[in-house]
Amino acid sequence: MLIFLTVKKQLNKKYAFITLLMAILIFGLTPYIAIPYSDNWAFFLMSLYIFLLSTMYDKRQFHFNFISIICIGMDSALLYKIKPSTIIILIATIVVLFVIILNEGKQYLNLQNVKKQLLILLLFVMPFLLTISVCDYFADNNNLVKIEKNRSAGPLHFMAMGLHGDGGYWWDFNSKDESLSPKDRKDYEIMVIKEDIRDFRTLNNFADFLIKNNREILV
C-alpha cells in the first residue's frame, strides 16, 4: 500500500494500481509471506523508506517535511539492523542527492541553503544513530539470545558484498572474511571495497549498478 501511494503521488493511479497488483501477486500467490525471514520486514521498511522520500519535499510550497526526514533516519537504521545489505538504497539516495547538488550548482551552495542542508543532515543522522544505539542496547541486554560480537559482521562486510557482482551473497568472500581476526577482517574488507569501486571505472557505471540493484530489491 505504501508503494501504491508513492507511485500515485509521483506518477498516476494507473501505474499505482499496476504496482499494487504486482505486490499482491508476490505476497498473495506465493509462500513468500509465510516464510519467517528478514526479507518480509525489509520489504515493508523499504516501502516505507520510499514513501517517506516521496513526502520529504513539497514542490508546491518549496519546503522540506522535517518529520519525514526524522522518520527516514529511524527507518534507515531499522533497515540496516534487520537486513544490512539494504544499506545500498541509502548509498543510492546520497549519490542521487550529490548529483542533483552538482547539477544545480549555485542554487544549493549559497549560505541559506547550506544551513538548511546541514539541518536536514542533522535531522537524519541523530534519529539514525539513536535508533542504532537503542537496537544495540536491547541486543546486548536481552535474556533470550547470547550474541557473540567477535563473530558479527560489520558495515564494511555488507558493503563489500553489496558492491560485488549482483550485490547478493558472496560465498568466497564470506568464508575468507570469517576466518580472519577482527583487525585483519577490517583491512581485508576495505581492500575488497576499493577493488570493487575501481572495477566500476566511471561514476555512470556505479550509478547504473545502484539503480539496477535497488530495482531488484523492490521487485
Describe the structure.
The chain has 219 residues and is mostly helical. The chain is built from eleven helices and two strands; from the N terminus they run αααββαααααααα. Strands 1-2 form a two-stranded antiparallel ribbon. The longest helix is centred in the middle third of the chain and has 30 residues, at 111-140. The two termini are 14 Å apart. The mean pLDDT is 76.
Describe what is shown at a glance.
The chain is mainly alpha-helical. The chain has helices at residues 2-10, 13-28, 38-55, 66-82, 87-104, 106-109, 111-140, 155-162, 171-179, 182-200, 203-218, and strands at 57-58, 63-64.
Please report which band the strand proportion falls in: under 5%, 5-15%, 15-25%, 25-35%, 35-45% or over 45%.
under 5%
Number of E-state strands: 2
Q: In DSSP terms, counting alpha (H) and pi (I) runs of 4 or more, how many helices?
A: 11
Radius of gyration: 19 Å
Span of the ends, CA to CA: 14 Å
- Name the structural class: mainly alpha
Query: How do the strands line up in the largest sheet?
Result: 1-2
